Amino acid sequence: QVQLVESGGGLVQTGGSLRLSCAASGRTFGSYAMGWFRQAPGKEREFVAATSWGGGSILHADSVRGRFRISRDNAKNTVYLQMNSLKPEDTAVYYCASTGNSGRLANRYEYDSWGQGTQVTVSS
Fold it and tell me: Over 90: is that where the pLDDT of 56 sits?
């Protein structure tokens, strides 16, 4: 199991930027694929972005492509989510997650370790 702790959430105006970080500890970080998901009140948890263990495979949801970017630094055991041009509909609790699997990275059920989440609120 990998322990995950997110940080970097907060309140930002429409059009602003935030960078989320997810620090991992436990088993070898570099061997895990990492994902970001989000959950707004009353809605299902949805996929945002994911990166394979080596960073060679990167996915972004259609709703954030071109505005958000996932990256990882295996030397620091950290994955990041750079969020630009934020919109009110991006408001949610953002979770990072890890998986030892290499496929279906947009599927939340593939992930077996989750952080506690960090709140992102975008005001209009």
Answer: no
